C-alpha cells in the first residue's frame, strides 16, 4: 500500500477494521511510512501493528530526511529500512525523462517528441515497493529450499512456505539488519539458505517429505 493518511482523517476507523480483517485471514500487509520527516511517526495504515512499515534510506543505508525515524527498541518491530531515495522509475512527463540508464556516468535525455521514459523519484511509497519485492524474494527462496533441501513436492512446499510467511516473515526480515553496527538497512544476503531451512523445519505443522 504505497499510501498514507494524516492522523484524524475521516474514515480511518473503517480502514483499521479492514486491515484487522485482512490480517486475521493471514494476508501480509505492507505500507509506506509517509514523507513527513524524521520527527514524525509513521502515518496510518503503516503505523498499525498488523502492517509492515516501509521506511526510506539512500543506497548507503542513511535514513532519508523525509522518512519517519525507525523505532529501534520496540518490542515487536514491524518497521524496516529499505532504499526509497533516487529510484529510477518509468515516468511520463515531457522534459523530465530520460532513457533507461545503462551506465552510471551516462544519462541519455529523451528527444522533444518522446513523451515518456525514466526519471528518478524518492519517497516511502517507492520504499514500500522495494520492501514488497524483498519479501517476495524471501518466499521464492523458501520455496526453492523446500524443494531442493527438504525434498518436498510442489504442493507441500507451497503450504510450508505459506506457514513460514504467516508466522516468521517479520523475524526473517529482522535478521537482515545489523543492529550491532547500528545498520538497519535490510541486506538480503544476511539470511542464508541454511537459515531459511531452519524456519521450514520449525514450521508449526512440520514438513511432509515426498517419497
UniProtKB/TrEMBL annotation:
One of its GO terms (biological process) is proteolysis. CDD domains: Peptidases_S8_S53 (cd00306). It holds the Pfam family Peptidase_S8. SUPFAM superfamilies: Subtilisin-like. Transmembrane segments: none annotated. Residues 18-140 form the Peptidase S8/S53 domain. One of its GO terms (molecular function) is serine-type endopeptidase activity. This is Peptidase S8/S53 domain-containing protein. It comes from Orbilia oligospora (Nematode-trapping fungus).
Amino acid at each position: 500500500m504505497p499510501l498514507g493518511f494524516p492522523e484524524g482523517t475521516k474514515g480511518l476507523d473503517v480502514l483499521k477494521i479492514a486491515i484487522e480483517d485482512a490480517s486475521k485471514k493471514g494476508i501480509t500487509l505492507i505500507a509506506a511510512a509517509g514523507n513527513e520527516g524524521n520527527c514524525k511517526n509513521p502515518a496510518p495504515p503503516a503505523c498499525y501493528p498488523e502492517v509492515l512499515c516501509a521506511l526510506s534510506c539512500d543506497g548507503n543505508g542513511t535514513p532519508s530526511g523525509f522518512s519517519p525515524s525507525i523505532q529501534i527498541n520496540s518490542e515487536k518491530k514491524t518497521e524496516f529500512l529499505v532504499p526509497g531515495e533516487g529510484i529510477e522509475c518509468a515516468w511520463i512527463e515531457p522534459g523530465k525523462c530520460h532513457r533507461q540508464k545503462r551506465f552510471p556516468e551516462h544519462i541519455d535525455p529523451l528527444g522533444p517528441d518522446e513523451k515518456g521514459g525514466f526519471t528518478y523519484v524518492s519517497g516511502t511509497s517507492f520504499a514500500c515497493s522495494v520492501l514488497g519485492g524483498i519479501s517476495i524474494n524471501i518466499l521464492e527462496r523458501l520455496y526453492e529450499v523446500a524443494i531442493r533441501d527438504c525434498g518436498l513436492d510442489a504442493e507441500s512446499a507451497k503450504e510450508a512456505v505459506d506457514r513460514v510467511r504467516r508466522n516468521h516473515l517479520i523475524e526473517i526480515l529482522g535478521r537482515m539488519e545489523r543492529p550491532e553496527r547500528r545498520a538497519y538497512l535490510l541486506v538480503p544476503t544476511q539470511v542464508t539458505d541454511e537459515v531459511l531451512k531452519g524456519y521450514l523445519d520449525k514450521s508449526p505443522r512440520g514438513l511432509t517429505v515426498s517419497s
